[in-house]
Amino acid sequence: MSVKIVTDSISDLPAEIVKALDITVIPMMVNFGEETYRDGLDLSPEQFYERLKTSTVFPHTTVPSIHLFSDTFDKLAKENEEILVITVSSRLAASYNESTQAIRFMKRKCRVEVIDSHWAGMAEGFVVMAAARAALAGAGLDEAKEVTQKTMSRVEFHATFDTLEYLGRGGRIGHAWAMLGSLLKVNPVITLKNGVVEPVSKARSRAKAIDQLYQFAESCSNIEQMAVEDAASPKEADALVKRLGALFPEEKILRSKAAPTVGAHTGPSLLLVSIQGKLHSRA
Predict the structure, then answer these.
(1) Does residue 46 carry a pLDDT above 60?
(2) Is 191 helix (H, G, I), strand (E, B) or coil?
(3) Alpha helices in the chain (DSSP H)
(4) Which of 231, 196, 201, 197 is nearest to 213 (CA)?
(5) ∠ CA(154), CA(265), CA(153), 5° rounding?
(6) What is d(CA 64, CA 24) in angstroms, rounded to the nearest whole number?
(7) Distant-in-sequence, close-in-space partners of 35: CB < 8 Å, separation ≥ 6
(8) Mean pLDDT within 193-202
(9) Contact indicator for 217, 263 with CB cutoff of 8 Å
């Protein structure tokens, strides 16, 4: 039975991987005032971050309508017998809830199941890639689900940026924590824990924060995949890739751009390292 893998644009998967693994990506929505854009389609990451730096309007993000999800599932059901949807953490965005509800509005008969990855960015992307590879190898929906669940426990990311202001405005952290961070001029390092933003540390400089991203990767063993993402700091990301080459083959490190729906909550200085492997940082 053929299984189609679907995810949201917050997975930050590079276009070449989406194509190679036959993944369907549903774009999230970015809003500047009354203007609404489909993440990565109507507004590229480069265009978004350039506007973010100069706009006096603070962007906010939304998920598409339930009917866009159900219409997408119906189209895929024409050529696929089963669909597995893997979403960003349900505690960060409503993709999981919308996808689950959309199944009720489908017009075609098709088995559709939805999994909350509890992740975002390329950590979510690694989970999606594992499921897609299984599907291409002939796995059925139940087997693809099993692969997904196993991979979710073997991925993690650490990220840094210059200010907590964006997370505070978007309600992803408490306003008091955001204000304190801005006053102290710290460079926060964060991860997700049980699908929620969790502080790792507060570095006193950008250089020290990037050092901590390297140390996170250094703490892992049996690394199977590694990705480096940036929002609008490609030179820093490229330099970090070269440095991480001491831990994992540089040519195998995936480079990705943080989606506008991610950057709206972190700002243009986001730099992120995702790992799939044995994660000693959780010990």
Answers:
(1) yes
(2) strand
(3) 15-20, 45-54, 66-77, 95-102, 121-136, 141-152, 165-169, 175-184, 206-218, 234-244, 260-263
(4) 201
(5) 10
(6) 15
(7) none
(8) 90
(9) no
User: Could you give the domains of the chain?
Assistant: 3-28+63-152 (3.40.50.10170), 155-282 (3.30.1180.10)
CA distance 69 to 102: 6
Residue 171 banded pLDDT, cuts 50, 70, 90: low
Chain-centre distance for alpha carbon 58: 21
What residue type is assigned to position 107 of the chain?
K
Q: Please, which pLDDT band fits residue 168 given cuts at 50, 70 and 90?
A: low
CA pair distance 283, 275, nearest whole angstrom? 15
* Cα dihedral 163→168→171→177 (10° resolution): 110
Structure tokens at 192: 């997700």
At 56, is the secondary structure helix, strand, or coil? coil
Nearest-angstrom CA–CA distance, 213 and 90:
25
246 confidence band (pLDDT: 50, 70, 90): very high
Length of the chain: 283
Confidence of residue 2 (pLDDT cuts 50, 70, 90): confident
CA separation (Å) from 128 to 123, 180, 216?
A: 9, 36, 22
What are the tokens at 145?
């689900």
Nearest to 214 by CA among 141, 272, 155: 272
- The encoded tokens of residue 269 equal 């200085």
Q: What is the pLDDT of residues 99-148, one digit of tens each?
A: 999 999 999 999 999 999 999 999 999 999 999 999 999 999 999 999 99
Mean pLDDT of 263-281: 89
% the chain with pLDDT above 70? 90
Q: Whole-angstrom Cα distance, residue 257 to residue 132?
A: 20
